[in-house]
Specification:
heterodimer; A: 268 residues; mainly alpha; MetI-like fold; 79% helix; globular; B: 338 residues; alpha/beta; Rossmann fold; eight-stranded mixed β-sheet; 12 strands
């Protein structure tokens, strides 16, 4: 409630929203409404929060899905190549770069890319949606942080796997290097990476919130940020609920995939 | 049947590099393997047996070391100098290897059937269905019960003995001419060990393949070897037919090893204490110029410290010791060890 609101209106609104009841009652009321599928309405637009949110979700997916694919692709290839060329110049540069990238917050990368590519070079738009050019900066910004993480982990896991007896054994069978590295190596090295990818999904959602704000991207992340700014609690609560559900679902997916990929897990 | 040479290793040198030190794991090793014969490579751990085997297949990891000199002649080609592509057509196909620890060597996330089938598909260009059929036949052949179901099992679902059988099935699926077995029974208990040895023997008789068997276990050597190579500190110190080595060992080290072997009969019926070879193997990064066995040798003489002994060959029996004649003479009749 804005502080400049008149006292009479404030009292009326408190009664209407049920804010005079104690916390437990309010919470139970909220929970009961959830079970009925009623997630509430935005305080400001008076529209159901589900509707507001779902309008924005496709935009967020347009940003996060390509970013995730890009991140996994770069992370896998980079990490794999660094492990295969252990201690090479590429390996060293990649390791340094991943540490730096993991340390720089998302919004700094976003602002830096805007400064370079939009303001100085005037190559790409700094924000908003429209042409394919609008996608480049936010997708890259979003992908960079997670791909550094993935690359680092793929490299570490692959190095460990490369030292295993079964890798040398696979070579002693006269298999081609591609089969040895991908079938016997990567399939073993990918297991821990998968776990982290599930966790990274959370990071990607958080990154989307920040990135969408920096690039004025009309997605669900920015909707939630706006809700925070305007103290639109019903909308904010729903946003957090959806993000949490998405992260739990992603981790569930990882567990299922883990079972499919690692026969030793399936047994138990 | 006239035997002919299948593989000849000439002056092989393999060095490992770690922390700025050069470890001379294999130093000037030469030997040959005749078709269909069994050659045993014997020695303590760290004597260079496995390094020799991996050098033959050019499987020394680049990060650890490399073969610095020597030839591995097979069918008129030097395996160390042919292209990698050519090498791959021989590995797993004409020369196969089984490892010491099947639990570590088999890929944990691939089924046993797939691990056999992939060799067949790679080398024999089989269809997937044909490869699977042959994989099942191989599992049957190595005595794995219920082979059809085992095809879809993962390595962790098999017992240690079964895993080693599976590895033998993989190795033999392309009917290799030479099987290199790196301590294949060390990780197994005694009963299973003799089963595996029996199986290898049977398969060898069946297929006529040669066997290069690496072990530190002399009782295994006595059971299977035609020819024996004794390695010490990266070098061959004695080589001969199995009877020559067991009945008339020349090198003090070999004599020590044979004494360290538990025997069932000790002649007079009294129990004989096991006498281990005293001392430890030398540091391979820091070898003295003389005989590397000198510090542990009870017959060491003054010149052993500075004169490196050459390999001396008499009637197909070689020994790397300058004083072996005196030592053998002084000892008189060798103890009955067989």
């Amino acid at each position: 409630m804005p502080p400049e609101m008149p006292e009479a209106q404030r009292i009326e609104l408190r009664a209407k929203l049920g804010l005079n009841d104690d916390i437990a009652t309010q919470y139970l009321r909220y929970g009961e409404a959830l079970l009925r599928g009623d997630f509430g309405q935005s305080f400001f637009s008076k529209r159901p929060v589900v509707e507001l949110f779902m309008e924005r979700v496709p935009n967020t997916l347009l940003l996060t899905v390509p970013a995730f694919v890009l991140s996994v692709a770069i992370g896998l290839c980079g990490g794999l190549w660094a492990a295969l060329r252990h201690n090479s110049l590429f390996d060293r540069s990649l390791t340094t770069a991943t540490v730096v990238m993991q340390a720089i917050p998302n919004f700094v990368v976003g602002i830096a890319t805007i400064l370079i590519f939009s303001l100085s070079l005037r190559l790409l738009p700094s924000g908003g949606m429209g042409t394919w050019k609008h996608f480049i900066l936010p997708v890259i910004t979003l992908a960079l942080a997670t791909c550094a993480n993935t690359a680092h982990l793929v490299r570490t896991c692959m190095l460990e796997v490369l030292a295993q007896d079964y890798m040398r054994y696979a070579r002693s069978k006269g298999l081609s290097p591609a089969v040895v590295v991908l079938k016997h190596g990567l399939r073993n090295a990918i297991l821990p990476v998968l776990t982290i990818m599930g966790l990274q999904f959370g990071g990607l959602v958080a990154g989307a919130v920040v990135t969408e704000s920096v690039f004025a991207w009309p997605g669900a992340g920015r909707l939630v940020i706006d809700a925070v700014m305007k103290r639109d609690f019903a909308l904010l609560q729903f946003g957090i609920l959806v993000f949490s559900a998405a992260i739990i679902f992603a981790n569930l997916l990882v567990d299922v995939a883990y079972g499919l990929l690692d026969p030793r897990i399936r047994e138990r | 049947m006239k035997q002919s040479e299948l593989l000849r290793v000439e002056n092989l040198r393999t060095y490992f590099y770690s922390q700025g030190r050069t470890v001379r794991a294999v130093e000037d090793v030469s030997f040959s393997v005749q078709q269909g014969s069994t050659v045993c490579l014997v020695g303590e751990s760290g004597s260079g047996k496995s390094a020799t085997a991996f050098s033959i297949l050019n499987l020394i990891p680049k990060s650890m070391g490399r073969v610095v000199a020597g030839k591995v002649l097979y069918g008129g080609e030097d395996l160390l100098r042919i292209s990698q592509r050519r090498q791959r057509t021989i590995l797993g196909n004409e020369i196969a290897m089984i490892f010491q620890e099947p639990a570590a060597a088999l890929n944990p996330v691939c089924t046993v059937g797939e691990q056999i089938a992939e060799v067949l598909r790679t080398h024999k260009q089989c269809s997937a269905r044909e490869a699977r059929r042959q994989a099942k036949a191989m599992l049957d052949r190595v005595g794995i019960p219920d082979a059809q179901r085992r095809l879809d099992d993962y390595p962790h679902q098999l017992s240690g003995g079964m895993r080693q059988r599976a590895m033998i099935a993989i190795a033999l699926s392309c009917r290799p001419k030479l099987l290199i077995a790196d301590e294949p029974t060390t990780a197994l208990d005694a009963t299973v060990q003799s089963q595996i040895l029996g199986l290898l023997h049977e398969l060898q008789a069946d297929t006529g393949m040669a066997l290069l068997f690496i072990t530190h276990d002399l009782s295994v050597v006595a059971e299977i070897a035609d020819r024996v190579l004794v390695m010490y500190a990266g070098r061959i110190v004695e080589e001969g037919d199995v009877m020559q080595i067991f009945d008339d060992p020349w090198m003090p080290y070999t004599r020590g090893l044979l004494k360290a072997r538990p025997g069932l009969h000790s002649g007079d019926g009294s129990s004989r204490r096991l006498s281990a070879v005293p001392g430890d193997p030398p540091d391979l990064a820091n070898l003295s110029i003389g005989c590397s066995f000198r510090p542990r040798c009870c017959h060491a003489a003054a010149d052993c410290a500075y004169r490196p002994p050459d390999l001396e060959t008499v009637r197909g029996h070689s020994v790397r010791c300058m004083h072996w004649r005196q030592i053998v003479e002084a000892a008189g009749e060798p103890e009955a060890v067989l």
